[in-house]
Write a structure and sequence with these properties.
This protein is an all-alpha fold. The protein has six helices and no strands.
């Protein structure tokens, strides 16, 4: 997916009734994105809920001045997971790794999965 093109479409929808003079688009690593949002009173950046929760837990990233606003309900948007081809048949080692990861996430980030439960 060309994320720049998709982001341009998103901005077109959001700013349909307003001039686009003050819109800046770009791709940055997550820490830079949060720093950018934190330093501006007028900037907003798209971010995912799990990434933001990790940033909140990190002492080296300032998130006190930031607010995370999801675009939709947790049930429809805020899941953490893996994406792979429908026809792919993960081998035993890969399935084991997925099981270990699921257990690790459930134990380590129980507060996140309480806020955004997996069905």
């Amino acid at each position: 997916m060309d994320s720049h093109r998709e982001m341009l479409r998103l901005v077109d929808v959001v700013m349909e009734d307003y001039p686009l003079n003050n819109i800046r688009l770009g791709v940055a690593e997550p820490r830079t994105t949060l720093e950018y949002a934190n330093k501006s009173n007028q900037a907003a950046s798209t971010f995912d809920s799990f990434g933001f929760m990790l940033a909140e837990k990190s002492p080296s990233i300032a998130t006190d001045g930031l607010n995370f606003t999801p675009f939709s309900t947790p049930r429809s948007l805020c899941h953490v997971g893996l994406v792979y081809a429908k026809g792919a048949k993960p081998n035993v080692r890969a399935r084991h790794a997925v099981d270990v990861l699921k257990r690790y996430l459930a134990e380590t980030y129980a507060d996140y999965f309480e806020r955004y439960p997996v069905e």
